[in-house]
Design brief:
Helices cover 48% and strands 0% of the residues. The protein contains 10 helices and no strands. Helix 2 packs across helix 5 and helix 8 (180-192) crosses helix 9. The relative contact order is 0.15.
Length: 240
């Protein structure tokens, strides 16, 4: 697929209406749509959320989505609708994970919406770039690919869909401050076709990504703190 065709496909995806998920995906008729919840957490639901987190989520993701182990995603400040969608995909087994399929299987819709509201409201985090020449050069590779893509490999700029500060959107994930290792693992999963539940665009792009580009982009994204007004704040920040 040529670079122009890839870009045309990217733009067509951005122009399309975002898909919404039903209030209960296990019972709804395929093709029907209902907006996801945007209601604030009630005191009762907050109590239930903390109970679920302490029973399950905290071991991998932390109470506030900080995820100290880099193989698990940070959920802090993740986009609410995206989180809710992913939990529903895990619940019905459409997105595969030995851990998450089991954890999400018995979650009710209200619990999923409340968990998404909780984690999305937590403050974002970012990693600090190491004072190392090798890391700095890799970071520059990642910044270039994120901003400009790689027309020689038919890869469009990542920021076309994910935004210049990698905040994502209602239906696309926030990548700013995410763990580098987790991002690389997901890109590899897209490249191998192991992750099938999200936009086919990611599989098409990841297919042409070299490991160098993956590592560079992941490193660059892991340092971003857009709320500070600078897409490169993590480069000199304290990493928190």
């Amino acid at each position: 697929m040529s670079f122009r065709r890839v870009m045309a496909l990217v733009l067509s995806v951005l122009a399309a209406s975002p898909a919404s998920f039903a209030a209960d995906d296990r019972k709804r008729t395929p093709g029907t749509k209902k907006p996801l919840s945007t209601a604030p957490l009630t005191p009762g639901m907050k109590e239930r959320v903390l109970e679920i987190i302490n029973d399950a989520c905290i071991f991998c993701h932390g109470e506030k989505g900080e995820a100290s182990n880099p193989i698990y995603p940070r959920l802090a400040a993740q986009n609410r609708e995206y989180l809710e969608r992913q939990l529903k995909l895990f619940r019905i087994g459409a997105r595969k994970s030995d851990i998450m399929n089991e954890q999400a299987a018995d979650l009710a819709d209200g619990e999923i919406a409340a968990l998404a509201a909780w984690f999305s409201s937590q403050p974002p985090l970012a990693h600090k770039l190491a004072e190392d020449e090798w890391e700095r050069q890799l970071w520059e590779v990642g910044r270039y690919v994120f901003r400009y893509g790689d027309p020689f490999e038919n890869i469009p700029p990542c920021m076309t869909c994910h935004g210049k500060d990698a905040r994502g959107s209602r239906t696309l994930p926030r990548l700013a401050g995410q763990h580098r290792k987790y991002i690389v693992n997901q890109l590899i999963a897209f490249k191998k076709g192991e992750r099938q539940t999200d936009d086919a665009m990611m599989r098409a792009i990841a297919k042409n990504l070299s490991r160098l580009a993956m590592e560079g982009v992941a490193l660059y994204l892991s340092t971003l703190k857009p709320e500070n007004g600078s897409p490169e704040a993590g480069k000199s920040g304290d990493g928190k």
